Sequence to fold (422 residues):
Amino acid sequence: MKKNIIVVDGYSTGNLYAPQFTAKGYTVHHIQSSETIIDIFKPSFKEHDYASNFVFNGDVDALYTHVSSLAPAVILPGAESGVDLSEELCIAFNLFANDAALLDNRKSKAKMNDALKRQGMLTAKQYCFTAIDCLENWLGELDELDWPVVLKPIDSVASDGLFICNSYKECISAANSLLNKDNLLGKKNTSILAQSYLYGAQYIVNVISRDGQHSVTDVWYTNRTRFERTKQILEDRVLLSPSNTPVTQLSEYVVQSLQALGIKNGASHVEVMMTAEGPAMIEVNRRPMGGAMPIDLFNAALGTNHTYRMLDLYLAPSTSSLKETIDYDVSQFIAIVDFTFQINGEIQHTKGLTYAQSLPSFHSIINAPKLGQRVFKTEDTIAGQGVLCLAHPDQAQLMVDLQVIRQLKSNGELFGVISYAD
Fold:
């Protein structure tokens, strides 16, 4: 097998690829999809892990010449910002490519759901608009049961630009704040997606794929809260056992979705809502699960992690390792709790956090704010203020401990924060 590997935007958990490929004897090269790395990804970029870094400035000929000179065995994205460029390169160089004819359906959240709907799959009612008057007409045709309405850019990351609107007035206000504004990926929001609100529990399904065969590597329940009516934040996520009730139904729906979108290769991080009518798609992300991923925690729970599973699958001589649709076991149940704050303020004490460390399932803390540190009201699901990790072989014990922490957070007692003027 050829010994050069290309990672496009090796940020977030995508920075795990290079050391692991290198340890297996491969030379890893990096392609930076834009001249500027967006702020949320800068801390995770480890340029020293790569033999070279090619900064793409829009010159496609120069990019293709560079890739050709490396004759890579694998090209894969590390983070959301590198997904589209990576996939276009895979198609151009015929390396673990997905269906080229369906590329636009994968790149646009609006076209993604339309493609699934054509296959008879459950999705939200939706409309993609480029002007406010078009949105006004669509809103006028909505049934009462279609409210609230969710607005979000068709090309964004995490919860950037997501609004949950309960009225016509809120929708128009949110649309005006989004349309033709720059998003966190550095792209202009020329199109906005409006969707009917999906009621239910939200899940994450992570998948690895090769040559049209798919295996689910882990499934998570995500606990989210709404505040100020229009925003949603991620509070925590819990790893589910393959035997937990929704896992089989969710996995079957996700694999069907990948097939409908022409996804044959690569890592997929899929967000799904389990509604009263069954699973409904939120979005398919064609890259590894992002956010906090302590390797020792994931390895203790699953024996590996989503990123490593994708790497090993591409290096395997065949797809024989993909035996089951749901292909993971849980040795320890884990939960990751985000540090969220209800106000702008300063940390006065950490008594609740200290108490949490005495719980039977406590595992570790990453980036906890310190005494005297300023913190800011959490307004999105974009990570950055740290997490608390739980792990226990008994799922019931984990859930008891998690409920204690949820209560501490709800009461504002995990950290003692004194407010200050903005």
